[in-house]
Amino acid sequence: MKFDLKATFTFSNDISSIKKEIENFVSNYSKVIIEKDKSVKIENIKIQKNQLSLNVTSAGVFRPHNALLQMKNSMSQEFGKKHKLGVREIVIENYEIQFALEKKPLKKVTIPFADVKSKDKLATISLKNVDEEFLQRNYIDRMISLVKEKVENQYYEGKGEFWKLIWESGAKKPVWTKDPTEEMVKLGWLKQGPTKGKWFYRPQITAIMKTMEKIAVEEVLKPLGFQEIIESNIVPFDVWLKTGHLEGMPGEFYYIAEPATRDAEKWVRFVDLTKITKEVPFDELKKNVSIPNAGICYAQCPVIYWSFKGKTISEKSLPVLVYDNTAISGRYESGGRHGIERVDEFHRIEPVYIGTREQLLKLREKLLDRYKHVFNKIFELEWRMAWVTPWYMTQAGKIGDTSSQDTGTIDFEAYMPYRGDRKKSEWLEFQNLSILGDKYIKAFNIKAQKSELWSGCSGVGLERWTTAFLAQKGLDPNKWPAGFRKYLKELPKGIEFL
Ligand code: ATP
Ligand code: ZN
Ligand code: MG
C-alpha cells in the first residue's frame, strides 16, 4: 500500500513563536515512526499563525491516518503544559491511498466519501477534507475493504448461488399437478390479504398450517430438546447492523416508524382532515411520524442472538437449543411473489443452536435425521438437499467453506409438480439448515466458561412446508399419506358464502 496525505493541525493559539520547538517535535516523532517503518516520510512542514501543515507518505504497513490522532495527543501533551496550547482540529486536505486488488475491476467502482480510480490490479482512492471524526471512526480502513469487496463481487454477479446436491429422495408419483394456492382460492380456503403478498387463511388451510407447526414441534424440536422462547417481532436497526442484515437486504425489510409524538394536540389536524376528507392525510402524517428505526422480523435468529449479547453461557447449558414460533417474518418480495409460497408475510419456526463445533456438527446430523423422518415418513415427499452458499457467506472473504462443509447452509427443496418436469422445473426451497461458525457469536460477544462457541439456525417455513406437501399430495385428505393423516385426517367445514 502507498499512502500520501497532506494534513493541517489547527492549534488553539498562534504557534509561530515556537516554530523551532514544533519542528523538533515533528522530526523526533518521525524518527520514532521511521524506526518501525522505513518507508515513512514526513515532509513539507509549514508553520503559519496557528497552523501546522505537513505531508506524510508511506509505502509500507504504516497507515498515516492512524498516526495523526496519536500525534495530536502527543502534541497536546507536550505543548499543553509548556505553552498552554492545544490542538483544536486536524483536517486532512488531501489523501491518496494506493492499494493492490486481488483481481482487476471489471467496471468502475464507486464508494461514498472518495474518488476511486483503478489501473489493472491497482486501486487509488482520493479523499479531500477529511475531519477528525472520520479518522476516529475508522472509516478509511472500511472504505479500502469496501472497494476490495466490490471488485470481488463483480466476479460473482450473475453467477448464481453455489449449489451442490447432497441427497435426494427419488421420484414419487404426485397425486395431482395443480397449483395448490389457485385451487384453495377457488375453494374459498384462502383469500388474498388486504395488501400485497399477505393472505387470509380460512379454517381449512389454517388447520393444515397448524398441523405443520405441530409436526415440526412434536417430531423435530421437542425430541431433540429444543426449548421454546418468545421474541419481539420488531427488530431495531442496531441488531441488524451487528448481523449484517442492514447492509445485506435493505430493500427487503418492512420498516417500522414510531409516532414522533403521542401528544393529542399535535394530532388534531390529522384527525380533523381524516374526518372531513375520509382519506388518509399522508402529508399531515409525515409531520407526525419519525423516520423508521426498526423493521419487522426478517428472520428470527438476530433477536435470539441479541438476547445472548455479552452473556457467558454456563457449560451446563451447552448446546443452547431454543426456537421461536411467534414472530412473523416480513419480506418485501416485490416481483417474486407467488401464491402462499413466496409471500411478504410468513410464519416460520426458527430453531437456533449455540455450542461447540463438535456439539453443532452432531446436532446437525440429529436434525437431519428428524427432518428426514418427517419428509419421508410423514409427508412422503419428493425432495432433495443441496449444499448452498447464502448471501451472508458470499461477501468478500466469507465464502462458505465448501471443502470441509463444517460451516455453511443446506437447502431443502421440494419438487412442485404444477411447475412441470421434475428435471427442468425449479424446485421450492421449503427450509434450510445452517451452521455459521462464530460469525454471530463474535458479533454479539457471546461467551462460554471454557468452550469456543459456534452457532447456527434452521428456518422452517410453514407456508413452504404446506405448499410443498399440497403440491404433491393434493387437497383431499383421503389421498394424504397415512403418517400425515395421523395428525390430520379431516378438515374443518369452513364457512359457506352465498
Ligand atoms: P428464497 O431463496 O426462496 O428467497 P431465502 O434464501 O430468502 O429463500 P432464507 O432467508 O434462507 O430464505 O429463509 C429460510 C426459510 O424461510 C426458507 O427456507 C423458507 O422456508 C422461508 N421463506 C423465506 N422467504 C419466504 C417467503 N417469501 N415466503 C415464504 N417463506 C419464505
Ligand atoms: Zn437464522
Ligand atoms: Mg429470499
Properties at a glance:
about 500 residues; six-stranded antiparallel sheet; BirA Bifunctional Protein, domain 2; 16 helices; binds zinc ion; binds adenosine-5'-triphosphate; single chain; binds magnesium ion
Outline:
The chain is α+β, with helices and mostly antiparallel strands and 498 residues long. The chain is built from 16 helices and 22 strands.
Task: Describe the protein in words.
- The protein is of the alpha+beta class and 498 residues long.
- It has three domains: 2-154, 2-Layer Sandwich (Alpha-Beta Plaits), CATH 3.30.70.1920; 162-255 and 297-485, BirA Bifunctional Protein, domain 2 (2-Layer Sandwich), CATH 3.30.930.10; 258-291, no CATH class.
- The protein has 16 helices and 22 strands.
- The strands form five sheets. Strands 7, 10, 15, 16, 17, 18, 19, 20 and 22 form a nine-stranded mixed β-sheet that branches.
- Strand 5 and strand 6 form a beta hairpin.
- The longest helix has 22 residues, at 357-378.
- The protein is elongated and about 95 Å long.
- The relative contact order is 0.11.
- The model has no long low-confidence stretch (mean pLDDT 94).
- Zinc ion binds next to strand 22.
- Adenosine-5'-triphosphate binds at residues 299, 331, 333, 342-343, 346, 348, 429-432, 459, 461, 463-464.
